[in-house]
Amino acid sequence: MRGHDWINTCLPDELIVEIFRLLDSKPSRDACSLVCKRWLALERLSRTTLRVGATGSPDLFIKLLARRFFNVRNVHIDERLSITLPVQLGRRRGNNYNVVSSLQLYATEKDGPEDVGFESCSLSDAGLIALGDGFPKLEKLSLIWCSNISSSGLIALANKCSFLTALDLQGCYVGDHGLAAVGQSCKQLEDLNLRFCEALTDTGLVELALGCGNSLKALGIAACAKITDVSLEAVGRHCKSLETLSLDSEFMHNKGVLAVAHGCPSLKVLKLQCINVTDEALKAVGTSCASLEFLALYSFQRFTDKLVPFS
């Protein structure tokens, strides 16, 4: 029968959503969402991953996304990215054009001008609160170089998103209280990246290890001047399932690496860029970490050619 809609009349919602999930690219899913209102609504249900850049106001963008996509599990926010919005409209004033994005116009219509702050291109604590409120089932979150967020926002997020398994805070200026809240609330956390988190100290990392050390499998630390061997000793005591450790610090010594080697027998990947670590620590790794599969040594100024018998 020509003109008869066999798909929408015969296929249930669950099957169409599953078909959308099997599409190999975002442009394909976007095209499907334009077919009809039903497909638009179902395609939104199939979205599990969102990427947000530094265009416009990320805080507002997250609020709008939360209204449309209900099954999101992975969010990647990178302030180094500039994601172009779908439409740019121009309003002419004299000889100049005031460019207004479709996102701005939509938000102004829905919320009123007083709720829209477009001067900032940085995610703030308000954005983290919106993330927690909008995506409570969040499992993986990357906050890359989001320098305007603080412990307050991270605490609010952790209290709402207890299912987090991966958290990337690279370049974020969060403090110890925020990291401690993650340890208290996110008991399933497996992967944590703390590279270039300059505000953190041993206090925050020790509290995190106490809170969710049992589940932690991967940890990255770099350029954190206030994190010392004290933190690694806590990791060795409480993170028995740790499999991957990436460490770049001139403030770490043998004591911390020895604690990890003796306390984390499941270690498979070890990347060290620590100028104060010597052969003693490397020997302990070879003796205690029988599961080690990958070892990378960078700037090893105090390692020698001494043969180390790995188990």
Describe the structure.
It is a single chain. The chain is an alpha/beta fold and 311 residues long. Helix content is 40%, strand content 17%. The protein has a domain at 7-46: Monooxygenase, CATH 1.20.1280. The protein contains 13 helices and 11 strands. Helix 8 (151-160) links the parallel strand 5 and strand 6 (166-168). Helix 2 crosses helix 4 (37-46), helix 5 (58-68) packs parallel to helix 7 and helix 7 packs parallel to helix 8 (151-160). It starts with 5 loop residues before the first helix and ends in a 14-residue tail after the last strand.
User: What is the CA-atom radius of gyration, in angstroms?
Assistant: 24 Å
CATH architecture group name of the domain at 7-46: Up-down Bundle
SSE ordering: HHHHEHEEEHHEHEHEHEHEHEHE
CATH class of the domain at 7-46: Mainly Alpha
Alpha-beta classification: alpha/beta
- How would you write the strand order of the largest sheet? 1-2-5-6-7-8-9-10-11
Number of helices: 13
Q: Which fold name fills CATH's third level, the topology of the domain at 7-46?
A: Monooxygenase
How many E strands? 11
Rounded mean pLDDT is 84
Approximate strand percentage: 15-25%
| Overall spatial form | elongated
What level of helicity do the residues show? 40-55%
Task: Give the CA-CA distance, first to last residue.
Answer: 71 Å
Spans of at least 5 consecutive residues whose pLDDT stays below 50 are: 85-119, 307-311
Largest sheet: 9 strands, parallel
